[in-house]
Amino acid sequence: MFIAFAIAIRIFRQLTNDRRTIGMIIIVPIIITVIFGYAFTGETYNNPIIIVNLDESAFFPESLGDRIVEKLENDDRVKIVDELNDYTLAKEFVLNRTVTGIIFLPRNLSNSLNPILNISVTIEIFYDEAEPAIGGSILGALSEAFADSSNDIREETGLSSLTTIQRVFAWGNEEIRGLDVTLPGIIGYISLFLIILLTVLLSVREDLEGTKARFFSAPINRWQVMLGYLIGMTIFGILISAVVLLVSLFVFNAEVRGDLVLVFGFVLYFAMGSVMLALFLARVARNEFQAVQMAVIVAIPSIALSGFMVPINTLPDWLGIFSNLIPLTYAVSGLKSLMLRGLGLEDIAIELLALTIYMIIAFLGAVFASRETVA
Fold first, then answer.
1. Averaged pLDDT score across all residues of the chain
2. 219 and 362 assigned to the same domain
3. Which of 169, 198, 220 lies at the terminal end of a domain, its last residue?
């Protein structure tokens, strides 16, 4: 029993002497709990939308369309950024991803309340089906606003509407499966996590075994060493990414509306960035235990803040800012555009630029954080 207590005390001291471990035990659980608590609230908020309100009423002082807009203005699930009279023009803002959806309130919406006219009209929601949670929030906000407005008029006049609400998808004619929506995130996340874990562990092990020190007995500098590691580990990154993508395509029949070659190329480009990030983390870690810590610290926030499992709109504004600093955010966005929206290379220019900047910073960080010098 004494020996067991002695071993326990030694382990406790060893762990508490490492500030990173203390952070993993105390600080990281707090941060992760807060992140996931906000991320999985269910609803998305402040979704930017455009209203196309063509409704006019000759029977009521305030049209049904105006009443619906007033109630939507007080609903935090949507944020009305503009009101237009041209439905076709408004659609372009969804297609270029400036807004998340459009609510179209047609002519004769108020007149549908008059039983003499016997008019049936349809309110349309035009949204990006690659983000079903956002579409659900917009639909929920509109349904409540329509119901409340109709009830108000019914109480005033005793009339009820024959109106229906219809969803119209931006990129296709049918709703995307839930699995297809999550597969871009799964592809990016698995590639990121496995590449980081394997690269960091390999690099740290070579440090501990003195392999890297032998490199510097030759006329070689740290730039060449990092470039060699980058090339070597990128090959493994390509294999990992290819396996994940092929399983998604042939086992789960992943939806690919765009160019499959572009999808594959984009995944490989992100894999190269993951290798560079892993090399930087390996320079910071001093042993294999710290290497695993680094991988976990990168991986877990990436799940909650990248739009992988829940839309970024779900997060509070102050937490959403950190999403812009996470590489997986741009990988998920780019893959969704290529796979689910059927867009081309020019449409993911921002994502490519962000990933390129992140790759450069990670590689330079790995080089300058390297403690080796030329022999």
1. 82
2. yes
3. 169
Assigned token pair, 113: 């309340």
Query: Do 258 and 314 share a structural domain?
Result: yes
Residue 33 placed within a domain: no
CA distance 302 to 38: 14
The reported pTM is: 0.83
Residue 363: the pLDDT is 86
Q: What is the pLDDT averaged over residues 218-230?
A: 70
Asked which of 18-22, 151-155, 217-221 is least confident by mean pLDDT, the reply is 217-221
Domain end, chosen from 136, 169, 202, is at 169
Q: Per the structure, how many domains does the chain have?
A: 2
DSSP string covering 30-64? HHHHHHHHHHTSS----EEEEEEE----SSSSS-H
Residue 32 maps to a domain? no
Q: Bridge-partner residues for 53, per DSSP?
A: 105
| pLDDT over 70 at 334, yes or no | yes
Give me the phi and psi of 47, to 5 degrees please: -70, 120
Do 152 and 183 fall into the same domain? no
Mean pLDDT value of segment 258-268: 92
Alpha helices, DSSP H, located in the chain: 2-16, 19-22, 28-39, 64-73, 87-95, 132-157, 178-209, 211-215, 222-250, 260-284, 288-305, 317-323, 327-339, 349-369
243: containing domain: 178-369
277 in the same domain as 312: yes
Question: pLDDT of 104-150, one tens digit each?
Answer: 999 888 888 777 777 889 999 999 999 888 999 999 999 999 999 88
Of 236, 137, 154, 157, nearest in space to 191 by CA:
236
